[in-house]
Amino acid sequence: MLVPAAVVFDLDGTLIDSRGDIVAAVNHALSATGRRPLPAQLIVRFIGDGARALCARTAGLPEASDEVEPLLSEFIAYYRTHPVEFTRWMPGAQEALEQIADWDDLTVALCTNKPRQVTESVLSALGVRSRFRAIIAEGDVSERKPSPMPLQWIARVLGMETTRLVMVGDGPQDIESARRAGARSVGLLNGYAPRERLAEAKPDVLIPTLFELRDVLRRWRDVTVRLSSVAR
Ligand SMILES: O=C(O)COP(=O)(O)O
């Protein structure tokens, strides 16, 4: 195994707890298109596969239906202008970003299924856009996580092999995308996905919160450095 060279974070449920703002934007879109708002717990179950899938699921429509369009535009328009009213950092997220920035040999990137325009508004409002050397969001490439395509794109932009990436996420989509891309994965247990679904996806490591990420990365760096000096 090669020494990790980049940590790629998922956004929703990993770096930020965005549930309140997503629920508000969905319920705005449902009302604006003449539908009834839904309870927050139900909406949260539909998060993970991007905004189009989210809007379709909340309205009981197939994702490919034209009827999803007006819902999606209402969702994006509202969310872009209300990006962080209820959003909070996930426990340990800011600390993890700061620690990794201190390690010269590790780069930080972001791989999210959130639409590009909303991702930009959220990152700018949180003042952290410049922390990421590469950002990929929904709509940037033709397939979203769990496809390996977004991670392959990140690796290309960073000029490294996908085997040098560590994907950190709370959803089975993150873990599957990493496996299919040949990257390592860290599953975060305190995010939105039920624990069993995350465990079934078989990440290389499962951690309770981002506070434990530093030790995992340190272990992987130390082991790979030791192994490569033995091989020499
Ligand atoms: O918006 C979504 O559906 C999920 O976004 P994420 O990939 O950052 O978890």
From TrEMBL:
TM spans (from-to): none
Recorded superkingdom: Bacteria
Pathway: Organic acid metabolism; glycolate biosynthesis; glycolate from 2-phosphoglycolate: step 1/1
Reactions that this protein is recorded to catalyse: 2-phosphoglycolate + H2O = glycolate + phosphate
Molecular functions per Gene Ontology: phosphoglycolate phosphatase activity
A Pfam family annotated for this UniProt entry: HAD_2
EC number(s) given by UniProt: 3.1.3.18
Gene Ontology annotations of biological process type: DNA repair
Keywords for the protein's UniProt record, in alphabetical order: Hydrolase
GO cellular component: cytosol
Family note: Belongs to the HAD-like hydrolase superfamily. CbbY/CbbZ/Gph/YieH family.
PANTHER family according to UniProt: PHOSPHOGLYCOLATE PHOSPHATASE
Protein name: phosphoglycolate phosphatase
Species name: Chondromyces crocatus
